[in-house]
Amino acid sequence: MSEQQETVRRKRALSCIQPTGTPTLGNYLGALRNWVALQDEMDGCFAVADLHSITVRQDPQKLRQQIKEMFAILIAIGLDPEKNIIFVQSQVPQHAELAWLLACNTQFGELSRMTQFKDKSQKHADNINLGLFAYPTLMAADILLYQPDYVPVGADQKQHCELARDIASRFNNLYGNTFVVPEPYIMKAGARVRSLQDPTRKMSKSDENQNACVSILDDKDTIVRKFKRAVTDSEACVRYADGKDGINNLMEIYAAVTGKSYDEIEREFDGRGYGDFKLAVGEAVAAELAPLQERFASLMKDKAYLEEMMKKGASTASYVAARTLSKAKKKMGFVL
Ligand code: TYM
Predict the structure, then answer these.
(1) What is the bridge-based pairing of β-strands 85-88 and 150-152?
(2) Are strands 85-88 and 183-185 parallel, antiparallel or unpaired?
(3) Ligand 1 test: best mutation among 17, 87, 88, 98, most atoms within 8 Å of CB?
(4) Atom of ligand 1 nearest to the CA of 155
(5) Per-residue pLDDT tens digits for 201-238
(6) Which atom of ligand 1 lies closest to the CA of 17?
(7) What's the CA gap between 209 and 192, in Å, rounded?
(8) How many A from CA of 310 to the centre of ligand 1?
(9) What is the pTM for the complete model shown?
(10) pLDDT above 60: residue 4
(11) pLDDT digits (tens, 9 = 90+) for 102-117
């Protein structure tokens, strides 16, 4: 792209995370870390997706605290509130409004095919609510309101991002050009971090087994202990291969954190046992997370700053979102 074109419109990235507990190493490597890396090249919009989290029942008091903590985490990982729009989704009412317009342009069949809906309906069989079913239309609204070019996510959100693209294209075809049709942006290393106890499944906050999941706020001893207990195999050879899900997962994590290739990792641990390797992965992860843990602790003491940043984020986000929403409403025939 020429310099002149670049000044016309910088690329834009948008992504969100649910405040349903402390983020895992999976959230961090699959998404959060990449948001920070993008902030120098693109205009970023990053949000705490609290409206999404109530598709599963939440304790109100706990939710309130988790929203504040997640907002602080977004700044603690290194997102600069001066460079990006960092906000809480429920403080920007346009999300819920656009979601309705999009819901009327989304098919029942499309939503029924979403694997996350199928998984969550199984997990929460007593509460298969309309919001859980319509979740992807709210996510499409989150995205399309900010006209981003890229949506940096982990691999598990690819299907939702593709639905958002389909909804945007359909809307544009029906009513005229309204939305940018965004691309999912999925990094290879860290796109699908797996459970340390069952490496056929993704690492998830909701895992009942504490050893399966590393939280980004775990202290060094806890992290090292969890990696020590990680499920591997009996070959005792650090190499990336079919059927070695546990070792493959640890190699992916180590590669994502250190920037080393699989070949380099295999050479580094040639002739050494899994004990050495697990310790190295644990220590590398702990070292990567230590600075953000420190920033998080000091930010949580500065309530006034966090409140100010939250207000500022909501106000800038509302300004951008209101413009897109008006455009969409006008195109659909509403009287403004
Ligand atoms: P959420 O809150 O479940 O996860 C936040 C981000 O973390 C990624 N992720 C992972 N990446 C690699 N390995 C894992 N084990 C792992 N677990 C989670 C997710 O892919 C995600 O990028 N629906 C979204 C939140 C959302 C959103 C949006 C995202 C709401 N609106 C608009 C993008 C754009 C979700 O539940 O993510």
Answers:
(1) unpaired
(2) unpaired
(3) 17
(4) 20
(5) 999 988 889 999 999 999 999 999 999 999 999 999 99
(6) 2
(7) 18
(8) 21
(9) 0.95
(10) no
(11) 999 999 999 999 999 9
